[in-house]
Queue: 3 jobs
Job 1
Amino acid sequence: MRTFPPNDISSLVGTQPRHDLGESFGPNLRLKDVLAGMSGFDELELSYGTVAGDPGLRAVIAAAHGVDRDDVVITAGGAHALFLLAFILCCDGREAVTTTPLFPLASNGLTVSGGRVHTIPLSFDAGYRIVPAEIRKRLSPTTALVSFASPQNPSGVTIPPANIREIVDSVAELAPRAFVLVDETYREATYGDAPISSSVAGSSSRVITVASLSKCHGAPGLRIGWAITQDAALREQLLLGKFNTVISCSPIDEMLARQVLETAQHTMPARRRHLAHGFERTAEWISSHSAFVDWVRPDAGAVCCARLRSDAFHDAAYSGSTPSSTG
């Protein structure tokens, strides 16, 4: 029997603590925020949705990413898209290349699908930067998927577009049947007026992007995500995989999701200001404790990586020797 590994982040859907210092998203939207000014909701039929997802919702997502509506498949959250892609592409021992740290559900999907996973560790000292040459060294004709996030979860580091293009070029050369999956869930979660990185959706038929309403938009309860691919055969498998797992998404969720996205120009600036405030407070705290704490400054997102400085917390600090001046 295949088993799913236990995971501490299951607490995301457990009893909520009063103060969650590890929260990975901003304030949740409330239903009244979404319903304000919305009409036709009471006439919605509680039927099955379509397998691909509501055409209007897919059109909104497609327009925001510069792709065709039919390139978009709606899924039950971004995690569902990640799992389906792992199951379709990496079953039966096919190879995947990914990085760590990584959103646990992304890596777990690869493992439980039976794929052979080559994991590239990204280091704090190197700023969690992906080196395309390291991915290239792990590619082979049997590679089926290269998977990473930009911005990364949990570091918040964005991968430069030139590096992504270099990775895609290497895959085309060395792993001609493989796809490059870029999880863009945090792409729009920038700080204040900071620029938003362009999506890589549609940049190549080899590129798949995944995102959702959970992080940037503050609507994880809607359970709406999406995958974007321009490969017709892969899209067909995603549709079959979705039908065989959840049949369709809820029409209620899809209707509300469309409203969230269509009003994002009004709601997102306030959310980005909220993120900027949290970022500034974190930066100030790190700066005021810089003798003891170091961090990798994130480019986007609601979480980051910090650590105790080894030169301030070494063995001598606990051996009874005279404290340093920073003590």
Job 2
Amino acid sequence: MYIDSHCHLFYEDFTADVGEVIARANDAGIGAFVVPATNHETARQAIALAEQFSNLFVCAGFHPLDLEHFSEEHFVAVREILGHPRVVAVGEIGIDYFYDRSPKDFQKEVFSRHIGLAIEHDLPIVVHTRDSVQDAIDIVLQHVSHHPEWMSGNGVSMRKRGVFHCFTGSAEQARVLFEHRFLVSFPGPLTFKKSGMPDVLKEIGIDNVMIETDSPFLTPVPYRGKRNEPSYVVLVAQKIAEILNIPIGEVAKITSRNAVQLFNLPITVD
């Protein structure tokens, strides 16, 4: 079994055939889908899908590229949505310096406020970074230092605090995240010829890794240039198995176990 830990199935790209997309993924061995919203409206759309498909789970929050929709009223709406039983994390949140859509300080402020929501609800976070990995790490670790109880469970079995999705940082940055109970995840670009992430993966190993598609974006080889969909997460797993020279079954088991534990999914991993 595989878990697509990050797919945006509410996008218009899937409006006409989302049922077929999910059926193809199920046939390919994908047992669950985690769907991070990008704002309050897409969170409601994702919840509607989760109520239709029993193995689909939702994250709620404001993506840094969607902050033109952000307001106090909408932030309150996200807080209320977090109480829905199919919501498993706060996300997709973070910082994006690649596109000049919102001032950096405003992005950092909203990101920090979302982490506060996660601490308030004792939920993990799903973090977006682009040209901003270190700043995002610094903000997250600031919150961890002030709230060491966040995701600590009963003090014996401490859960992970979140994931830096579509990870593009260094092995050293990944190790800092692992030390503070965060995971990283890899999507389709891991399969690209010019990607530097295989070298990072070789250094950090698979114990704190998840797999994702980020569909409909970041389609892996050999479908690069076409719409991405959750069934293609198997191609990411195959690439990880090749890079680390381990059986693909081990990749499936470890990455699925990490997703189940992070998001507290009602799924058993054999």
Job 3
Amino acid sequence: MSDRGRFIWYELITPDMAGAKRLYGDLVGWTAQDMPMPDGGGESYSVLSAGGDGVAGMMNLGEAMKAEGMPPNWTGYVCVDDCDAAAEKVKTLGGSVRRPPQDIPGIGRFAIVADPAGAVFAIMKPSPPPGARPPPDINAVGRTGWHELYGADPETGFDFYAGMFGWTKADAMPMGEMGIYQLFNNQDGQVGGMMRKPDNVPGPHWLFYFRVADIDAAAAKVKAGGGQVLMGPMAVPNGEWIVQGVDPQGATFAVVARKG
């Protein structure tokens, strides 16, 4: 099965890699392994692993990024068959290319893009393309269990992602004045939801939910690690519990678990 349309990587850009490793290591259980950046320059890249598998990465928010106005953030990478063609398609569908396609030697070709509402994400063609592999286990601790977009009204904003990746709509949950919460599927089934950005949310963005073993313990660890709990623990309709937070460096994230 092709990985096209799957989130295949998650990347934290932070001004304090050591502090972020401590928080997420304690909170999610990730282990970190540093490696030199492919372009040299003295910077390192940390691969974060769960159960022996690399699931995310971390890099330093350098001065050049700060000069561009980039805040600490988590970015999701969606797999495409052709990075250059996909970047052009982003533009034809009303989005924008923030960083044009470029190669990461031995890893793949990627671009940083934004949907028409301005929510940023990455597209990547891995190199070499992976062979057939099972879908990711979103219920395993340390994996990303949910993908949530705060952006355009899903009644119109969803068309961009359907056109880009072939995602399909699942159930639509009414939320009163906040509009609808549109669940969506990729080839693995239901993997996320979209909603109109609330007025109190600074800007359109993707929020990623990392799976933890215990939601109450996770909320306590966020606070103990110097982060801030924005919401939760809160029950959601599928019987799970979530916490949304901000890490000490300013990047937003969320965690999900069964109660207890």
